[in-house]
Design brief:
Helix content is 76%, strand content 1%. It has 403 residues and is mainly α. It has two domains: 18-198, MFS general substrate transporter like domains (Growth Hormone, Chain: A, Up-down Bundle); 214-393, Growth Hormone, Chain: A, CATH 1.20.1250.20. A two-stranded antiparallel ribbon has the order 1-2. The radius of gyration is 21 Å and the shape is globular. Mean pLDDT is 85; it is low at 1-22 and 205-211.
Length: 403
């Protein structure tokens, strides 16, 4: 493990008192603005995929565009510790925002290669931000980790919904998809400007003491598996829930609305769940409760997708609150911001790789059986894995400490 040691003028080491003083309203707003941008590049592009097909973007390219973000989150997220050691978490986040902004601009330049490269670049910035934000919260909000985790994940979800809901109207209003997508770069610029004052300090010196390696730690692996299962649920829902409802007889508009309702109803749960989890001795109980909601939702979709459509969508939205709980575990299971970044790197890189196969497997099973029953049964079974991982990840231990 890598332990944080802050340099003091006298040569002694002190806690991160400077970070605590900086955790005011400006820093809070900056963190939330950053969070708002951490899914817009993905959902805004998804909203225009059909339109891009009409403009000549091939089905193969559209398929690459849908799978590229989650793979990018896994592969580029794995490099976050290199960025952290080189620049520190504060400057590293500034770099992530600049990369995100450049990608958002690049993808609306002329040609399919620019669209693909720009999507990769923007998602690379998001991948770094995904990993570094939990470390930022650990570093600057040590007494409010649960509250800030809830706030930024709720705002992240709102940003995701905004990208999905507003991109088509923006395209229609401006008359071109390039502006419909490109205007989101202005929102990213706002985040860059808001974060810049908090990325000017010198990089803190850190020691290199080593404790228990993450890759050999059971708790680290439990957190990683938990991140992977909740990501699988989330990406399967975003990829296939509208299709499931359409096959049940709903119009495309209503099917899309049901997905939007599911995401929106999850926002208050995203805000409240980590605040509650931060006060609990064992977070596994809350993970189990949320997972039961998810399991009931998928079971209902397999048995009666039409009769309980709105209920199942609501349950899936609420059950998705496992996401902010596992992000909170990055901070709760570690003792420093660098350790938090290391655990976040491991969990997100491996977890997103696991999640990348989920939508493909579900789609393949549906095609093979011409039914959603088997995929839904598989997802209910995945819930048992998530509950087990949740209880192991939620134990009140610190990675690297004797326990």
């Amino acid at each position: 493990m890598v332990a944080v040691v802050h340099a003091h003028p006298s040569g002694a080491t002190t806690p991160s008192s400077q970070s605590r003083r900086r955790a005011g309203a400006g820093l809070t707003v900056a963190v939330l603005l950053v969070a708002f941008n951490l899914r817009i590049a993905v959902t805004s592009l998804g909203a225009l995929l059909d339109h891009l097909g009409d403009l000549g973007v091939s089905a193969t390219t559209q398929g690459v565009l849908t799978s590229l973000p989650v793979l990018c989150f896994a592969l580029v997220g794995a490099t976050a510790m290199v960025v952290t050691r080189r620049f520190g978490v504060d400057r590293g986040l500034a770099l992530a925002l600049v990369v995100l902004t450049l990608g958002l601009v690049l993808r609306v330049l002329d040609g399919t290669p620019a669209l693909l490269v720009g999507t990769f670049v923007s998602c690379s910035g998001i991948a770094l931000g995904n990993v570094l934000i939990p470390a930022i919260v650990k570093e600057h909000f040590p007494g409010k980790v649960g509250t800030m985790t809830g706030a930024y994940t709720a705002v992240l979800s709102l940003g995701s919904a905004a990208g999905a809901a507003l991109t088509v109207p923006l395209t229609n209003a401006t008359g071109t998809w390039r502006l419909g997508l490109g205007l989101w770069a202005a929102v990213a610029v706002l985040a860059v400007v808001a974060w810049a004052p908090f990325a000017r300090g010198a990089v803190e010196r850190r020691s290199t003491e080593r404790g228990t390696p993450l890759w050999r730690n059971r708790t680290a692996w439990a957190v990683t598996v938990l991140f992977g299962t909740q990501s699988t649920f989330a990406y399967v829902m975003m990829s296939w829930l509208p299709s499931l409802y359409a096959d049940a007889g709903f119009s495309d508009e209503t099917a899309g609305l049901l997905l939007a309702v599911s995401i929106t109803l999850g926002v208050p749960f995203f805000f409240l769940a980590p605040r509650l989890a931060g006060r609990m001795h064992q977070q596994g109980h809350l993970v189990a409760a949320c997972t039961v909601l998810t399991m009931v939702g998928w079971a209902g979709l397999g048995l009666a997708p039409e009769g309980g459509a709105w209920l199942w969508a609501a349950l899936l939205g609420a059950g998705g609150a496992v996401f902010p709980i596992v992000l909170l575990c990055f901070a709760l299971r570690t003792t420093s911001s660098v350790d938090t970044a290391a655990l976040s790197t491991m969990a997100q890189s491996v977890g997103y790789l696991l999640a990348a196969g989920g939508p493909f497997l579900v789609g393949s099973l549906h095609d093979a059986t011409d039914s959603w029953a088997l995929p839904c049964t598989l997802l209910v079974g995945l819930g048992f894995v998530q509950v087990t991982a949740g209880y192991l990840a939620g134990r009140p231990v610190k990675i690297g400490a004797a326990h």
